[in-house]
Amino acid sequence: MEAILLTGRTIDQGCSKESGKESEDYKESVAICEMNADDMKNSGIKEKSNVKVTTEFGSVVVKAVKSQRLRTRGVVFIPYGPWVNQVLASNTDGTGMPLIKGVKAIVEPTNDEVPTINEILSKEPMKNYTVK
After folding, report:
1. Using the 8-state DSSP alphabet, how is residue 11 labeled?
2. Is residue 130 part of a domain?
3. How far apart are CA 68 and CA 86, in angstroms?
4. What is the domain range of residue 59?
5. Which ranges in the chain belong to alpha helices (H)?
6. What's the total number of domains in the chain?
7. Strand-pair partners of 4
8. CATH label of the domain that carries residue 18
9. Residue 117 domain flag
10. pTM
C-alpha cells in the first residue's frame, strides 16, 4: 500500500523506555510501523506481522501494529530510532534537519525478519558503529 510516513518520539520514549538499546523492549517499541486499522485490513496486514517499508531512501522490515492514534488512512508512523533511519534521507538540504515528515512510502507484508540493531549498524555507512 502507498502511504505517507511520519516519525517522531513516542510517549514511551519520552518516559525513558529506550534504556538499553540492545534490549528486546527497545526493539519492540521502535521497530514498529503504526498503521490505521482499516489500512491493515484492506492490505491484508495482520497485527504484529512483519512489513517492509520502502521509500526512495531505502527499506526496512518492522512489525505492523494497529495505531491507537492514526485515524487518517494512508498515513503510517515509525518511532525515532535506527529502523526508521533506514528509510529517511540523511541530507538536510542546508536546513540542519532531515526530512522526517511526509515521506512517500510503500508498506507491504513480508516474510523477512526484523533486523537487530547491530545488523542495522553493520550496514554501510554505519559499519564502524556499535551499540554498547
Report:
1. H
2. no
3. 24
4. 2-121
5. 11-14, 24-30, 37-43, 82-85, 117-121
6. 1
7. 75, 104
8. 2.40.40.20
9. yes
10. 0.84
Q: C-alpha cell of 7?
A: 516519525
CA 65 to chain centre: 11
129 falls within a domain: no
Residue with cell 484492506: 42
**Cell 514511551 sits on residue:** 12
| One-letter amino acid of 53 | V
Distance CA 58, CA 124 (A): 12
Kindly report, residue by residue over 55-97, the tens digit of the pLDDT.
Answer: 999 999 999 999 988 889 999 999 998 999 999 987 666 666 6
Cell numbers for 9: 518520539
Q: Grid coordinates 533486523 are at which residue?
A: 115
d(CA 132, CA 117): 11
| C-alpha cell, 77 | 508512523
Query: What is the distance between the terminal CA atoms of the chain, rounded to a whole angstrom?
Result: 36
Whether 64 is in a domain gets the answer yes
Which amino acid would we find at residue 27? K
